[in-house]
Amino acid sequence: MAISVDTTYKTVLSILNKESRGFLTPDEFSKIGSQVQLDILEKNFYDYNRAVVKSNLNRAVSEYGDIPKNIKEKIDAFAKEASLSISNGVVAAPSDLYKIINISTTNRTINLDEISKSKLSYVNSSKLTAPTTSFPVYYKEADNIKVFPTTISSATIDYIKMPADPVWAYETDANGALTYSESTGINVTPTTGKVDFTLHVSDRVSLILGILKYAGVVISDPQIVQAASAEANSQIQLENL
Hints:
This protein has 241 residues and is α+β, with helices and mostly antiparallel strands. The chain contains six helices and ten strands. The chain folds into two domains: 5-74 and 164-239, no CATH class; 79-161, no CATH class. The relative contact order is 0.19.
């Protein structure tokens, strides 16, 4: 379940306006929200790795106490797969690619091993290590994925997608007041209406606190930054207990 862009925006405005601290425009909110959403996604990868290490050191916990599983569910909200049509060992990476999970071929029965570009010459230096259709490899370079051997023509990629930029769609009345619109807003780009946050609902508090920290900078209010940072630090301390 996604996090409502309308609820989030109204919550942020409510906190900012409580003491007449300032106003965050829909455009500012969308830009800040995009950055915070990406920050949270990246932090979830770090938290997952840390949780896995801690769970391996301690007795395994199941059900609601399975922290690695709970964090993985947050990341899985961005999971996606796509078919790759490869030509001469090169294919364009998906435009919304954030992190590659796996690339496979032959109906997912063979996984491609990821290597660094600098290791390719070493891998090709021996018949024992040279890539084959049974033991293929790949590396990512800029916006392309290079696959070896180059005779492979198709594959399936599992990856984490880039979060979609949130959009608080709105219309304006004769007095210039902004009204939230579920569908197409006359002042929205893109004009496809609202776009919610892709984050897991459990990240809602982190999302709001993150937006408030950036908002404090935008409206030049250090107290907002300090208060939001203090609350975020309290959350981190609780997570580390």
